[in-house]
Backbone:
């Protein structure tokens, strides 16, 4: 699939967000899934979050994105605490996340899935369609045009009229990326963007992330594919059994003895 080379302003405004995670805890009964985690995803950088199975990475993502409440600690986006916000409010503040398993509306087209993404559309208020039809029509046109620009940027134009349930898993991951881009976030959390994706499509995904990052977008990425992490990330945070055990450049963390031990002692990917 041919993806367009450069995002224009209609795809990404290019404002970088700063995410601070401070002493965050999340317990499931006696299981300290996230156990006092602190790190910063610096603005305009791509930070990798790695660690063996069960390390607490997805739980931390869920906590940051407001999908589950935290038990202790703080999460700040550009200096504002967001840890008590529900997920829709975190999203509105500029932090968007994708899921390990994509969740498109399978019986809607790719274009419809992407167009549905932004919140606060005037047409959603039923009286607006009666009282302010011009406003609703104008906004629908803007959403349509923005969705098509983002779909083109993500290399999805050839499948935009196909049902989202009928395209490949890798293409569905790109649909997820397209959906979150509709909100023009400042930081995107990607949960295993490379998992189960064929190599050609993986190149497209990597390329799009790099391009968006060049425009200033901050990324925090959970990924098990170490080639992906090494080639993409500026900084890496390593978790094991709920704690951060190392952080630094990709080269330095993969050489750290505690990281090698965590992977060998737990489930090796
Ligand atoms: N909803 C839940 N209820 C109870 N325990 C949970 C729940 N979600 C996760 N856990 C537990 O929390 C711990 C961390 O799991 P989590 O899925 O966050 O790890 P992970 O690092 O994302 O693993 P993976 O790489 O396999 O996705 C595990 O012990 C897991 O069993």
Residues:
């Amino acid at each position: 699939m041919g993806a367009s080379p450069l995002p224009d302003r209609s795809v990404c405004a290019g404002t970088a967000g700063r995410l601070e995670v401070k002493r965050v805890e999340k317990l499931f009964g006696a299981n300290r899934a996230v156990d006092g985690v602190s790190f910063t995803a610096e603005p305009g950088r791509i930070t990798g979050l790695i660690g063996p199975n069960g390390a607490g990475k997805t739980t931390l993502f869920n906590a940051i994105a407001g999908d589950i409440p935290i038990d202790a600690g703080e999460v700040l986006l550009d200096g504002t605490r967001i840890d008590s916000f529900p997920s829709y409010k975190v999203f509105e503040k500029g932090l968007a996340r994708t899921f390990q398993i994509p969740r498109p509306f399978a019986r809607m087209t790719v274009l419809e899935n992407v167009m549905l993404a932004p919140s606060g559309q005037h047409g959603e208020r039923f009286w607006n369609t009666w009282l302010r039809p011009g406003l609703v029509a104008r906004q629908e046109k803007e959403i349509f045009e923005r969705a098509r620009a983002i779909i083109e940027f993500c290399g999805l134009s050839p499948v935009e009229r196909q049902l989202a349930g009928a395209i490949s898993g890798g293409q569905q991951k790109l649909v997820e990326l397209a959906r979150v881009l509709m909100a023009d976030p400042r930081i995107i959390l990607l949960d295993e963007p490379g998992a189960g994706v064929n190599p050609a499509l993986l190149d497209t995904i990597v390329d799009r992330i790099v391009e968006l990052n060049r425009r200033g977008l901050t990324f925090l990425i959970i990924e098990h594919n170490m080639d992906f992490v090494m080639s993409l990330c500026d900084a890496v945070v390593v978790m094991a059994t709920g704690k951060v055990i190392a952080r630094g450049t990709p080269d330095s963390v993969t050489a750290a003895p505690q990281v090698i031990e965590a992977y060998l002692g737990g489930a090796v990917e």
